[in-house]
């Protein structure tokens, strides 16, 4: 401890004096002689222009200004420790385990792609992925990240928006040849449709805004209910039924002409938005890096799935 101590180091020294209770203990702890400790505290008092310690032969006690400075020093120590901890995140490769939960189709398509990319970048991280369409209890089941549609209601979770998920109504060309292209909601409601149905969730009504801007429902004529989203597309491809699907479920069926968007003049209300949710604690760097990787895979502004639907920016009330 030469002469070159700065204000920050002297404040930390004062903190040690107050915590250990005497110059002698600090000199022992720091392995320097006692007069050096005393000298640095005197310098601190001169620098600040206030009296910090009441010294008697028996004991040391802090003055009011001294207590205030010790509080500052405590904050300073915490800040320095945090800086070190943050820096470690950047030096060392992220490592350890990352436990992720996601809704099934989104997980199969995009989370899987992000995992492959993430493992290439950060080979030290072991990943576990659970695909579930139920709402997973991220904290209770000890997940680091959950991907789901809709903002979480749980206050102990942080939500980061990933991408919007809009709706469209599709049918195969052979279906349109058979029934004609519907122009009105009434006509649409009369046509056979395949809809998603799972315990507690039946998607047979879709919200739209009418010409006055008020919310109305289209009631689909559910000829077939099924609890596997991919079968909606497969069924529509076969040409007997139309379906309502989210843009995210479309791959190349529309660009290849196998499915056609119908009733595109209707202003459909978005199905929901994909969010990443994670516990409300100082989330480790690997959580943030994974979410960033996924956003790169999905697309930051316009989700990649919308780019597969030619002209989608002018359909269903989307404004370009």
Helix content estimate: 25-40%
What is the correct CATH architecture of the largest domain?
A: 3-Layer(aba) Sandwich
Biggest beta sheet attributes:
6 strands, mixed
Q: Taking Cα atoms only, what radius of gyration do you get, to the nearest Å?
A: 31 Å
Strand content: 25-35%
CATH topology of the largest domain: D-Maltodextrin-Binding Protein, domain 2
Commentary on this structure:
The protein is an alpha/beta fold and 320 residues long. It folds into three domains: 7-91, Orthogonal Bundle (Arc Repressor Mutant, subunit A); 96-161 and 273-302, Periplasmic binding protein-like II (D-Maltodextrin-Binding Protein, domain 2, 3-Layer(aba) Sandwich); 167-269, Periplasmic binding protein-like II (D-Maltodextrin-Binding Protein, domain 2). It is 38% helix and 26% strand. The protein is built from nine helices and 16 strands. Strands 7, 8, 9, 12, 13 and 14 form a six-stranded mixed sheet that branches. A hairpin with a 2-residue loop joins strand 8 and strand 9 (201-203). The chain is elongated and about 105 Å long. The chain starts with 6 loop residues before the first helix and ends in a 22-residue tail after the last helix.
Structural descriptors:
six-stranded mixed sheet, about 325 residues, Arc Repressor Mutant, subunit A, D-Maltodextrin-Binding Protein, domain 2, about 40% helix, alpha/beta
Blueprint of the fold:
Blueprint: H1 7-20, H2 23-30, H3 34-48, E1 53-55, E2 60-62, H4 64-91, E3 96-102, H5 104-121, E4 125-131, E5 145-149, E6 157-165, E7 167-171, H6 173-179, H7 185-190, E8 192-198, E9 201-203, E10 205-209, E11 215-219, E12 221-226, H8 229-238, E13 242-246, E14 260-261, E15 267-268, E16 272-279, H9 285-298
Parallel strand pairs: 3-4, 3-5, 8-12, 8-13
Antiparallel strand pairs: 1-2, 5-16, 6-16, 7-13, 7-14, 8-9, 10-11, 10-15
């Amino acid at each position: 401890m030469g002469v070159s101590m700065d204000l920050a180091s002297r404040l930390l020294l004062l903190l040690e004096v107050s915590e250990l209770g005497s110059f002698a203990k600090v000199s022992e702890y720091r392995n320097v002689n006692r007069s050096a400790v005393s000298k640095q505290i005197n310098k601190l008092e001169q620098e600040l222009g206030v009296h910090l310690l009441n010294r008697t032969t028996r004991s040391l006690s802090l003055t009011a200004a001294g207590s205030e400075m010790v509080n500052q020093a405590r904050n300073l120590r915490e800040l320095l420790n945090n800086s070190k901890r943050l820096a470690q995140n950047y030096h060392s490769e992220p490592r350890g385990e990352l436990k992720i939960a996601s809704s099934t189709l989104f997980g199969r398509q995009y989370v899987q792609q992000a995992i492959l990319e993430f493992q290439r970048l950060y080979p030290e991280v072991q990943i576990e992925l659970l695909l579930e369409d139920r709402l997973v209890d991220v904290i209770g089941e000890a997940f680091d990240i959950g991907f789901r549609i809709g903002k979480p209601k749980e206050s102990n979770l942080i939500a980061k928006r990933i991408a919007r998920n809009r709706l469209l109504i599709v049918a195969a060309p052979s279906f349109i040849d058979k029934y004609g292209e519907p122009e009105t909601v009434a006509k649409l409601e009369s046509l056979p449709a395949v809809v998603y149905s799972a315990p507690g969730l039946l998607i047979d009504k879709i919200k739209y805004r009418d010409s006055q801007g008020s919310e109305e429902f289209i009631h689909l004529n559910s000829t077939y209910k099924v609890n596997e989203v991919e079968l909606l597309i497969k069924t529509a491809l076969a040409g007997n039924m139309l379906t309502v699907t989210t843009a995210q479920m479309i791959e190349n069926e529309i660009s290849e002409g196998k499915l056609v968007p119908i009733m595109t003049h209707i202003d459909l209300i978005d199905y929901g938005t994909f969010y990443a949710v994670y516990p409300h604690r100082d989330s480790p760097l690997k959580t943030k890096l994974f979410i960033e990787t996924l956003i790169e895979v999905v697309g930051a502004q316009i989700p990649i799935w919308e780019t597969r639907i030619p002209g989608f920016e002018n359909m269903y009330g989307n404004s370009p």
